Amino acid sequence: MTQISSTDLGLPGLRSGLDGVPSSGEKQTGKDFTSDQEVRWCPGCGDYAVLKAVQNFLPELGIRRENVVFISGIGCSSRFPYYLDTYGMHSIHGRAPSIATGLATAREDLSVFVVTGDGDALSIGGNHLIHALRRNVNMTVLLFNNRIYGLTKGQYSPTSEVGKVTKSTPVGSLDHPFNPVSLALGAEGAFVARTIDSDRKHLTSVLSAAAAHRGTSFVEIYQNCPIFNDGAFDAIKNPDTKADAIIPLVHGAPITFGKDKVTGKPTKGLIRNMDTGAIEVLDLGPAADQYAKDLLLVHDAHNPDPSTAFAISRLTDSGYLNQTPIGIFRQVERPAYDDQARDQIRTASQAATGAPTDRLSYLINGGDTWTVV
Amino acid sequence: MYSTSEASPRTKQVRQLDRVIIRFAGDSGDGMQLTGDRFTQESAAFGNDLVTLPNFPAEIRAPQGTIPGVSSFQVHFADHDILTAGDSPDVLVAMNPAALKANLSDLAKGAAIIVDTHDFTGRNLTKAGYATSPLDDGSLDEYDLHRVDLTGMTVEAVKEFGLSRKDAARAKNMFALGLLSWMYGRPTENTVEFLSRKFAKVPDIRDANITAFKMGWNFGETTETFIVQYEVKPAAMAPGTYRNITGNLALAYGLVAASVQSGLPIFLGSYPITPASDILHELSKHKGFGITTFQAEDEIAGVGAAIGASFAGQLGVTTTSGPGVALKGEAIGLAVMTELPLLVVNVQRGGPSTGLPTKTEQSDLLQAMFGRNGEAPVPIVAPQSPGDCFNAALEAVRIAVTYRTPVMLLSDGYLANGSEPWQVPDVAELPVIEPNFATGPNSTSTAADGTTTEVFLPYKRDEATLARPWAIPGTAGLEHRIGGLEKGAEHGNISYDPANHDLMVRTRQAKIDRIADSLPPLEVDDPSGAAKVLVLGWGSTYGPIGAGVRRVRKAGYNVAQTHLRHLNPFPKDLGDILARYDKVLVPEMNLGQLSMLLRAKYLVDAIGYNQVRGLPLKAAELAEAISELVRSAEGKCLP
Ligand SMILES: Cc1ncc(C[n+]2csc(CCOP(=O)(O)OP(=O)(O)O)c2C)c(N)n1
Ligand code: SF4
Ligand SMILES: [Mg+2]
After folding, report:
1. Is A7:A327 a contact under the CB 8 Å cutoff?
2. Whether A230 and A138 share a structural domain
3. pLDDT digits (tens, 9 = 90+) for B273-283
4. Which residues line ligand 1 (CB under 6 A)?
C-alpha cells in the first residue's frame, strides 16, 4: 500500500496558526464538537467521511471549542458548519473567504476554517480565493472538490473534465478545467495541499499541518459525489490502481510511486529532465534503488521557489483522473496579513495617549478652527 | 487655533454686501480646487457663514484646455446664515476660454468676470469651441468683464526664483487668489502659513507661490483695473468652536466617534469608488483608534469582510457608491438574515451604471429600500448637510448596533465634497451606544423527565426592540451557527416550515418598524401656522429647499417645511403631518423616489419637483415652483 501519511507539523521555531488561540484545559472529544443537527447529505457522500475526520481532529488541536469558527459558502459541502458545535456561518455563494478575512483580522484568538466547494471556491468565489491566498490571512481553506455542482443537481463545474456530459452540457462541456493546486500556487499560496475524503489518516495529518500553519492554508479534498459524479476518483481509490494513480508527496523523501507486484518496490519516480528543466515520470525498472539515490526528485515543500511544486502539480490529469500527486506541495512561511494589520493598529494605539474621548475631541477640533464668543 | 481675524486695512472705496458667490474655474491642472479651498478657509476664519460646491471632471486629466477638462469651485459667503452654495455666481474667475464657456450660462447679466487673457490664444479658443474671441466680439458686453494677464504677471513676479516657465506659470492660481482676497478683504496670514507648510520641502516653489499670492493682492490694491473693494461682514453664529468641514470628513469623524462611544473597534471593508473613497482614506489614518481599514478585491469582499468582523464583535462598515451597493446586495441580505450590525454608506452619484461619477444625485433611495431579493428591510438614514454627516453616522450606528441590522447611510456627491462651517460638538454630549453582547444562556429547556438545562437561543428577541442577542465567538457555551437559510424562531436552526417563514419575515419587518419608537418627533417649520403647502425633502436638498422656502416667505407667502433624516422607517408622526397640509411638494434630485414611497404608504398626493442634472437644486427655481403651488393652494390667481 502506498504510504502517504507522514507530513510535517509546521516548521520549528515559527509562529503556529494556533498561536493566540486559548487552549482548552480539559480533554475534549469528537462528541464535544458535534452539534445536535441531523446530517443531511446523500447516502455514500464523501462529505460524511470528511465531517467525521474533522470532528475527531478538532479535539486534537487542544483549543477551546468556542474559539473555533467555520465559515462556508453555498453548496452541499457548505452545510458543514451546521454539524459542528463551534461558532459558524453558512454564508453566501463564493464569499466565505472574504467573510473569514474580516473575522480572522478582527480576532487573533480564533481558529478560522473555510469550507467551500469547487463551484463555490473556483467559479463564483474565485476572486476571493486568490486574494485570500495572496494576502495570506490566517485561516484554513477546505475545498471539497467533487468536480461537479452537487447542490444544484449536477451541472459541470470548473474542475470537471472537458467533454463532461451534464444537464447543462448535453453534448459535452467545452471549458478547460482549473487545477486547484496549480491555481493556489499561482495565487502565492504558502501552504498548498491535496488529500482524499476516504483516507482518514492522510486527511487528518494534512489538516493538522494546515491548522498549525500560520497564514492561509489551502487543502483540496477529493470528494466523491455518488449521485452526480460517481467514480470520479475511482482510480485513486481502487486498491488495484491506486498505487499507480497516487503520487505521494512526503517532505524530504524521493518522490516515487507504483508498486512492483513481486518486490513491492516503487516502479516509477519523478526526475528533473536536465535538458528542459521539466519534471517527468520515469519508469524505474529493475534498477530502482540505484535511481533513487542519484536521480530521483526529493520533495522539498519548504522550497521558497514555488516552481517545482507547480511543476509537480501539473502531473494531475485534467481529464479523467488516472494520476495525481497527493500531499503537501508547499509549506513556506510568509507574513500573515491579519498579523500585520493588527501590528499596525497595535503600534498606532500604543503611540496614542489619553482617553479615547479626549483623543476624539482633539481629532475633531483639529484643522483650522475659529471661535465665536 | 486663532480667533476671528481682522480684515486688512482698506485703501479704495469700500462697498458693503450681505453675500457673494464666487466661482473659480479653470483647467483641471490649474489648481482651482485648492484655490477655492483656500478662499473658503480665509472666509471661514473671517467669520462669514459659507457653503461650497466643488465641481470637477471624472477624468483625472482630461485634454488640457477643453470643456470636459474644466474644474470649478464655488464658494458662497455671507454676513448671515446661508443654506446653499448659491445658484448663480456674482463673480466668475475664468483661467481659460473653456472655463469661460463652460460656466457663462450660469451667470446673470451684470456679473463680474475676471479672465486670464494670457490663455485666450487662438489654439485655446478653438479647443473651447469659440470661433471668435469672446473678449473682443462683444458677446460679453452685458457683463462686468475684467481682463487680467494673470499668467504673464505671475511669471514676471516669480522670476527671481529661477523656476522653469511652466512651474512659474503654475503659481497663477495663487495670484488669482491674492487678487480676490484683496477684493473681499480676506485675511491672508493663514494662506501664507498654509503655503509654507505645503511646499516646505521645495523652497523655490514655496516662495514663488507666496510671492504670486502677495503680488495678486498688491495688483488689486495698486492698479486702476479694480476700483472697488467689497465688504461682507462676519455672520452672527452661535458661540462655539467652528471649522470648515466636508461631508466625507464629517462622516469619517462620525464613524470614529461611533467607535469611541460604543467601544466597538471599527472594521471598514471597502473598495475605492468616487465619491466615497475619501472616507476610506480618512479612516486609514486613524489606526490609533483601533480602526482596521481593509481595501478589498471588490465591493462584495468589502462588505463580506465587514460582516465577518461584525460576527467577530467589531463594528463592520462598508463605504461605497451606487454601483458598489448593487454588488453588495446579496451580502446585505445575508446581514438582514443573520441579524448582525452593519453600516453600509452609499455616497450617491449620478446613475445608472457608471453614470456621472463626480456629480451628485439622490437616485439610490429605492435601491436602498428594495435593492435586495426577498423581504429584506433595511433602515435608511440620510444626512442633510456636510457637517450633519457626523450626526447621521452616529445615528446610523446607533440603529445598527441596537437593532442588530444592516443600516444604509445615504450621503451624496454634493455633501461629500461640499463644505460648510461646522460647530465642533462637545464629546461629552455625544450619545453612548451600548453593544450589549450576550454573555450567557438566555433560556431554559425542559427535558422529558422534567429536568431543566440552561440554553442559549440565538434568535430569542428583546421584547422592546425585537433585536436578537449578539453572541460573539470566544464566548463559551454560546456556540451557534447562523447563515442565509431561513431560521427557526428562537432556536435559529434551519427551518423550512411555512408558518415559521411567515412569522420570521413579519418579525424582521416588525423589528425595523420598531425603530420608529426611538425617533424624535419631526420638526415642522411653519412660522405662521397658516401654511397650506408643506415642502418635504430628504438628504442634501435641505439647503436649497430651506433657501427656496425663505424666498417664498420673504415674498409674503406662507409655506411649511420639514426634512426627513429617517427614510425607513418613517417617523411615526409623518402621516399626521402630511394630512395637515392641502398640498405636499417633494423636491428631489431623482424622478420622484420619495414621492413614490409617500404615496404608497400614506395615500398622499405628493407632488414632485425633480431635477437630475447632477447638480444641487437651485433655490430660485425651487422658490418659483413653491410659490406657484402656494398660490394655487390658496386659490389666488396667477399673476
Ligand atoms: C448567487 C448564487 N448563485 C447561484 C446559486 C446556486 N448554487 C448553489 S450551490 C451552487 C454550486 C455548488 O457547487 P459546489 O461549490 O461545487 O458545491 P457542491 O454542492 O458540489 O458541494 C450553485 C450554482 C446560489 N446559491 N447563489
Ligand atoms: S449531491 Fe453529491 S455532493 Fe451533494 S450531498 Fe449528494 S452526494 Fe454529496
Ligand atoms: Mg462541487
Report:
1. yes
2. yes
3. 999 999 999 99
4. A 74-77, 93, 117-120, 144, 146, 148-152, 157; B 330
